[in-house]
Design a protein that fits this description.
The protein is an alpha+beta fold. It has eight helices and 21 strands. The structure holds adenosine-5'-diphosphate and magnesium ion.
Amino acid sequence: MAGLALRGVKKSFGSVEVIRGVDLDIKDGEFCVFVGPSGCGKSTLLRMIAGLEEMSDGLIEIGGKDVTFLPPAKRGISMVFQSYALYPHMTVRQNIAFGLKMAKTSRDEIAARTAKAANLLQLTDYLDRKPAQLSGGQRQRVAIGRAIVREPEVFLFDEPLSNLDAALRVQMRIEIAKLHNDLKATMVYVTHDQVEAMTMADKIVVLNAGRIEQIGSPLDLYHRPNNLFVATFIGSPKMNLMPGEVTGVENGAAKVALKGGAHISVDTHGKAIANGPVTVGIRPEHIGVGQAGAPNSVPGKVVLSEHLGGETMLYVETSAIPQCVVKTDGLASQKNGETVSLSLPANTCHLFDANGQAIVNGSLI
Ligand SMILES: Nc1ncnc2c1ncn2[C@@H]1O[C@H](COP(=O)(O)OP(=O)(O)O)[C@@H](O)[C@H]1O
Ligand SMILES: [Mg+2]
């Protein structure tokens, strides 16, 4: 197995630079997810790792070896795409074994590796079926089986679950995570879905317009986003953002005047904070619903409550922001039109400067 290193990787299509200098280390055995909005360059970056796309600049190492100029077949990688691209006239067994047959692997070896992969992916009972006789999830498992039998050092996945319905996506997500535990292989996985990234990754790389915004563990990114892009991309419902102004710092707390007249304190965690415009960020589950006039609170009116059973989303109109989302318990009793007081605990608030860079991130982790 092998780790990866990307150094100064750039890619332009004509005069358009789509990857603008990526430096990244992925450890041996790590599950690394590239996440970002559509068009940010995730597939292009993955295809350069695979050797399917030439780089404009930089170098890539796999297992400590410079592979920048190696063809895909010599890089020790297997790639699984969104479209399964199975051969319709071949059985599951033949589809899985195809690459090995092309590589002139011995019949015994092919049989052994196919059986092992089928067992791992629960495809043993389906080996003699054709792709048309399989469900979407089973087809995607065949595509993964085809990658597994080649015993690559690194697996590359490009949005492999996008064609599946929601329930199957959750199931396959769990299966791929289990597969990673079993194989202990290095996996690089591309998705635009932050939930997939959060649930599967050891390490998440957030990409935006061809640049890395932040690299970290799921909880790092959730609790300690570097900037507004990461803060709002990770987490659903999104972090609430309230414009305000720091008017001073007292006893380790920044005094923030929110738009509309409310004043709150935000823990500075020892950071020097200048007076001036900021954005206060707070996640929906950190907001409390309490008594009117409580300290560190903003008054509001419930516009809509969504009862999801286990939790309730309150959409609250406030003077600070028109729509503040609050995640509260499943049996919340607030009615539409009810006046509420939203408390913003000082240790859960994030502050971002006028350029959208984080100044403080709360102290939950
Ligand atoms: N072969 C190509 N020629 C020109 N532009 C391309 C090509 N492939 C991708 N792009 C552009 O590069 C950008 C990144 O694309 P891509 O890596 O596919 O994004 P993602 O996978 O994050 O959705 C997009 O703006 C896309 O239009
Ligand atoms: Mg893509």
